[in-house]
Write a structure and sequence with these properties.
By secondary structure, the protein is an all-alpha fold. It contains five helices and no strands. It has one domain (1-89). Helix 3 (31-43) packs across helix 4 (45-62).
Length: 97
């Protein structure tokens, strides 16, 4: 029987843990929060798999070479963000050429 099938398993607790996995992996949580997540991971196969997958994804992303964003794209993105901030709601020209 997996932990998900056990009556005491609480999917809401898994969602709460999942919401903090990035902070956990980045070592941004306090010791108490880390211990709680680690205890949960010891007993939850699904969350342990999610954590491992997220850790691998982060490691792969960190290993990718950095590429500069072309100036024209950077300008278009800034303009689109400004339009959204101003409440215009319409964003044109933010897509690919």
């Amino acid at each position: 029987m997996s932990i998900a099938d056990r009556p005491e398993h609480d999917p809401a607790h898994c969602r709460e843990m999942f919401a903090h996995l990035s902070e956990y992996l980045d070592r941004e949580l306090d010791e108490t929060a880390c211990r709680e997540i680690e205890q949960h991971l010891r007993h939850c196969d699904a969350c342990r798999a999610c954590c491992a997958t997220l850790a691998r994804t982060v490691a792969l992303c960190r290993g990718m070479p950095a590429h500069a964003v072309p100036e024209t794209m950077s300008t278009r993105l800034r303009e689109a963000i400004e339009k959204l901030r101003s409440g215009d709601g319409t964003v044109s020209g933010a897509g690919p050429d």
